[in-house]
Amino acid sequence: MAAEFLVMLYEYSPLFYIAVISLCFIITVAVVLGWFGFDVPVILRSSDETESVIPVPERKMVQVTNPFALEINCTCGSVTEGVSLQPCCLEDCVLSCFWGCGVQALQTALQSHQRELRLHTAELFQEALGQSCRHHQTFNVQKEDKEEYFTQMPPALEVTDFGLLPRDRYPLVAVLTLAHSETRDNYNIASSVTVIHVPDDKYRLSTRILFQYLLTAHGTLYDLKPLFMSADNSNSSGTSEPYAGTQGAEPQPERAGEKGEESDSEGEWPDIQGRDCVVCQNASINRVLLPCRHACVCDGCVCRFQHCPICRAFVFESFALANRPAHDDDDDDEEDFTD
């Protein structure tokens, strides 16, 4: 009976027909405009306007002192002729050089540090690598010593290359650990691991740092990344000088094997001071964007966009290079940062 009644209304009442059409139109408009929780199609709104109102989250900073630094002053070394390394540490350290270290063995050692074994001494690191390296050499580095240490494969081993790509061995892995147990409790960073490419007969790429990791005393692994800044009036040399005022972030722990490079510089960032923001050209640069790591904007402009103005990469987070202005009371504990 109800169906017959509706049919009669549809046939004999124009108002019922108009009401049904109007209801369908209203439901369709509501769905399109997102009144019931549906996403609005991209063609109906500007994505740039929507993204501009979303603030970029700021990564919180904690103070971390890095006692280790390692430089390669000459890129002309080779497997047969050796290479010179220059460590510069805040405390007496042990420099361990592992030639021909197995890739899988190094990754396993780093993973074991994160799980249960804390690789805070040269002996523990050598034990974790086992027999995976072709040659092992150890140097005692004095506090703040600028001396270069020469290391090479023994000619008696007759090793001239480590095979074709992809390789199962790193040419050289340099590990820095604190020499004295009484100083290990003073630093959150337990050791520094640097993977270095050294040219050989099969691969002539110049000597350079491939990866660099910091291992903390709490079992965390950090992959050091570079910071990118304007080349105008730049005095930064890309070195990794340690200093007592170093600041560190709390990023998610990086997996071993991801590319990283050294990127420490002076705690006061003197080469940044006085540079203008690339957006407003008024305030000084005070922000580093993540994950692209471009230092190019000020505090006022960082919240106006979510794409890096340099490389157009999507910005997930940012952190401050220098002390925040005095009116930001909630950020008094955030200071300079180096990775």
Please provide a written account of the structure.
By secondary structure, the protein is α+β, with helices and mostly antiparallel strands. It is 18% helix and 22% strand.
Q: Brief overview, please?
A:
This protein has helices at 2-12, 14-33, 47-52, 103-115, 122-129, 181-184; strands spanning 61-63, 70-71, 83-87, 93-102, 135-141, 149-151, 169-178, 189-197, 208-216, 221-223, 247-249, 287-290, 295-297, 317-320.
Report the end-to-end length measured between terminal Cα atoms. 77 Å
Structural class label: alpha+beta
Strand arrangement, largest sheet?
Answer: 5-4-7-8-9-10
Query: How many strands?
Result: 14
Gyration radius, in Å = 29 Å
Strand residues, percent: 15-25%
The SSE string, one letter per element, is HHHEEEEHHEEEHEEEEEEE
- What portion of residues is helical? 10-25%
Largest sheet: 6 strands, antiparallel
The low-pLDDT segments are 42-47, 233-273, 324-339
What integer is the average pLDDT? 76
Overall body shape: elongated
User: Treating each run of at least 4 consecutive H or I residues as one helix, how many helices?
Assistant: 6
